[in-house]
């Protein structure tokens, strides 16, 4: 092999090694889970705020929101994603997961088998959550009914079916930095935690770039519906004139200021958020109005 060939080979080896390192699944330090004891009663509130049932409940019209058998279909230009079974069933759900497995999944997007989850799962938002809240959520979810419905494989074409490539996506777009910063009031700070971390409002209400990363410069400015049907509205900007009372009341009741009713996936979101304390809904409203000023 001539000198140029050896240089090219060396560069290829270095590049491949660097790429393998960058795309590796990164889990939480073991000490994070070791120091946590979850509380199922506290976890119920996290379950409602995080909206787990909105995506993972069954698809039947009379589906029980506490039976997380999965099956919901999400069509995107990357392919079709299917919500998995996350009930406590040991064979088809998460019943065999440890608390550490659960925290790695929801906060780092890494499966118990050490593979990347696709970011259709909003772990980019849950990454900002308090690990104690996620430990509480784990304990609560383990009290829910088990269901033996098998999860359905995603329908993705090349190259999106290569899970290792999600490591590149994470390196580019996954951050635990808050989108709305500055000198926030205590209420706005609470609302930011609820909206940015747990309720993951931006996952739907913020436009995305060609690779599916959120455009943080247009935070909450509305986005095309991933299903291709309609548009998810902006909740900031000149065309959004709701008051804090309007926002809080909508999240509690589903009624807009013009007495229209929330529909589609938002109706499921409100079915969960509407069970939170009014002070928490008021905090989300305060955060949204603050976000409009950023």
UniProtKB/TrEMBL annotation:
SUPFAM superfamilies: Cytochrome c. Residues 38-145, 186-292 form the Cytochrome c domain. PROSITE patterns: CYTC. It comes from the Bacteria. InterPro entries: Cyt_c-like_dom, Cyt_c-like_dom_sf, Cytochrome_c-type_DH. Signal peptide: none annotated. Transmembrane segments: none annotated. One of its GO terms (molecular function) is heme binding. This is Cytochrome c, mono-and diheme variants. It comes from Roseibaca calidilacus.
């Amino acid at each position: 092999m001539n000198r140029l060939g050896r240089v090219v080979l060396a560069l290829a080896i270095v590049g491949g090694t660097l790429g393998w390192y960058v795309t590796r699944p990164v889990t939480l330090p073991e000490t994070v889970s070791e120091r946590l004891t979850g509380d199922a009663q506290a976890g119920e509130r996290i379950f409602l705020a995080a909206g787990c049932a909105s995506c993972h409940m069954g698809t039947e019209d009379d589906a029980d929101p506490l039976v997380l058998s999965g099956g919901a279909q999400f069509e995107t230009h990357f392919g079709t994603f299917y919500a998995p079974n996350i009930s406590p069933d040991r064979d088809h759900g998460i019943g065999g997961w440890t608390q550490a497995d659960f925290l790695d999944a929801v906060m780092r997007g890494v499966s118990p088998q050490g593979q990347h989850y696709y970011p259709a799962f909003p772990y980019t938002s849950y990454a900002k959550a308090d690990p104690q809240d996620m430990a509480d959520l784990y304990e609560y979810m383990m009290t829910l009914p088990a269901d033996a419905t098998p999860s359905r494989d995603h329908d993705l074409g090349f190259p999106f079916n290569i899970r290792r490539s999600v490591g590149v996506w994470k390196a580019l777009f996954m951050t635990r930095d808050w989108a709305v910063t500055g000198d926030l009031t205590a209420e706005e700070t609470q609302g930011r935690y609820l909206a940015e971390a747990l309720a993951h409002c931006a996952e739907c209400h913020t436009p995305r770039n060609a690779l599916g990363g959120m455009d943080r410069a247009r935070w909450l400015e509305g986005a095309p519906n991933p299903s291709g049907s309609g548009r998810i509205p902006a909740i900031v900007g000149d065309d959004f004139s709701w008051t804090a009372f309007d926002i809080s009341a909508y999240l509690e009741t589903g009624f807009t200021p013009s007495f229209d009713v929330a529909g589609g996936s938002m109706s499921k979101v409100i079915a969960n958020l509407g069970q939170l304390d009014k002070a928490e809904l008021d905090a989300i409203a305060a955060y949204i109005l603050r976000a409009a000023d950023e």
